[in-house]
Amino acid sequence: MCGDITAVKTLFKSKANVNMKTVEGETPLLAACHQDNIYLIDMLLNEGADINQALWGDLSYEGHNGKSLMRLACEHGSINVFKLLLEKGADVNKIDKDGRYLLCVSMFEGFDQISECLVLKGIPIAKSDEDEFQALDSVFNKYTRKNRDERYNKDKN
């Protein structure tokens, strides 16, 4: 069910059961997690996929590349997946396989809404001063570029 987004959308329209299991016991959500397909994970959750049934309650699940669902949500800006995992009690203090906190990941990728949620929870930016500097520098550079681009576009019009 995870390979072709068009086919998945067609199945949704025909009211396919998003929690149906294969003979091996795998659900579409679990298959999407194995593929680290955050877009499909988000689609399935929006269609009512049961995250507890899909992951057997293991919110610390990591895909084949070692990334947790929380890391994927922060990396791709999937606020729906992030909020659901947060609500279900997923660990937001975990340092990822690259040695970074989730806040560093969301800040670096520019996902302000997720970053704000993590800041409000008191999550550290990074585990070292160097990583913290890089995250803050990245945010500053994006903010500076955004303001410069907005001024340029305003002057252009």
Distance between the termini: 47 Å
Which regions contain 5 or more consecutive residues with pLDDT less than 50? none
- Radius of gyration, taken over Cα atoms and rounded to an integer in Å: 18 Å
- Decide which structural class fits the backbone: mainly alpha
Shape: globular
SSE pattern = HHHHHHHHH
Count helical runs.
Answer: 9
Q: Assembly type of the shown chains?
A: single chain
Pfam family, one: Ank_2
Keywords: ANK repeat, Repeat
ANK repeats: 24-52, 65-97
Protein name: Ankyrin repeat domain-containing protein
Give me some keywords for this one:
Ankyrin repeat domain-containing protein, Ankyrin_rpt, Ankyrin_rpt-contain_sf, about 160 residues, ANK repeat
